[in-house]
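Researcher: Good morning. I'm working through a list of sequences from a screen, and I'd like to move beyond sequence-only analysis. For each chain I'm collecting a predicted structure so we can compare shapes side by side. This is the next one on the list. No need for commentary yet; just the structure.
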Amino acid sequence: MAISKKTTAATPAKKAACGAKKTVDTKKVKATVKKETKVETKVSAKAAKTVKAAPAKKEASKDVVFSIDAPLATTVAVAGCFNNWSVTKNKLKKDKKGVWSVKIPLAVGRYEYKFVCDGVNWDEGENKVKNV
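Model: Good morning. Structure tokens for this chain:
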């Protein structure tokens, strides 16, 4: 019994249902995979570019003036949470009237501080507070 070519040329769905083997052109598959990989790479590169975070905005800082009337002091500094309570970082300058002052740029926030006269004499009482 001879089988005609028409019966073997069944539709792909019928071939799959009957368990017939499909022949696949590996060159076309590889080319398709390469194209899909290139497209995925391009898409992921674009996605990576769009996902990058915008540079952090600089917080607006304001010049804050610290001043104290201490005509008998030889040196005055301001120590606070903005300079890790350092008595040497922010020294004040004395004017003709004996008022010491310094201008410090600070970001918006709440700051505690004390004045330190002659390197050892800290303000009495609780910390002073500046809201910027």
